[in-house]
Amino acid sequence: MNTLTVVLVHGAFAESASWNGVIADLAATQITAIATPNQLRSVTTDAQNVRAAVDAIDGHVLLVGHSYGGPVITAAAAGSRKVAGLVYVAAFAPEPGETALGLTALFPGSTLGDTVRPIPLGDGTNDLFVDRALFPDQFAGDVALTDARIAGATQRPIRDFALNEGLPGDVAAWKSLPSWFVFGSADKNIPVEAHRYMAERAGSRKTVEVDGASHSVMVSTPTAVADLIREAFDALS
């Protein structure tokens, strides 16, 4: 395969800087990785934006998504000749029609709903953010408290429509592309059983469960995440 670039897509209640540690770790082994913006408005439009970023890159791409970034990379990869593989980092890997909220509810354990606060947008939808006082424990329990508070203060809200929008298309991209999964055993946003279920369903090439890691696994344990991305990168190169 010719040049391969890692493209990282953040999820809800996060932003591109959440990938800083992973990018630095990959750079140490000369792997080019970039974080592309995710507008968090709808799966369809967010995927279109990511697809445009992918199409602008020379060579092939390994798409990596965190949380809600999972549906976005799944939709963005559909039918693309440039996407070589998918890595799901504490992320949703939906079938067509499945929603992020629906997958969260498949198994008990998520406490996210109790911490989310709405901002009405005036069109019948809301922006949602995690209560900043509760963010460290809910989202980043294994991240240094100072850093977790900063992450809570800089989080990007997601439109509720996006979390309720089913994956567009007829076939999920992970059915035809190789995939890898990594998540923490202490994820309070997405139940661990849901992660295991989605990884097994997708035929994950390798699944890494980081003991004690939170939903912010890429922040708290960037090397574990980078190692799996590196393994996927090597398999595709």
From TrEMBL:
Asked whether the keyword Hydrolase is assigned, the reply is yes
Q: Which SUPFAM superfamilies match?
A: alpha/beta-Hydrolases
Ranges for the AB hydrolase-1 domain?
Answer: 6-227
Q: Which InterPro entries match?
A: AB_hydrolase_1, AB_hydrolase_fold, Sec-Metab_Biosynth_Hydrolase
Q: Which UniProt keywords apply?
A: Hydrolase
| Molecular function per GO | hydrolase activity
Q: Work out whether the entry's keyword set contains Cell wall biogenesis/degradation.
A: no
Q: Superkingdom, according to UniProt?
A: Bacteria
Task: Cite the PANTHER family for this sequence.
Answer: AB HYDROLASE-1 DOMAIN-CONTAINING PROTEIN-RELATED (PTHR37017), ESTERASE_LIPASE_THIOESTERASE DOMAIN-CONTAINING PROTEIN (PTHR37017:SF11)
Instruction: Identify this protein by name.
Output: Alpha/beta fold hydrolase
* Record organism: Microbacterium terregens
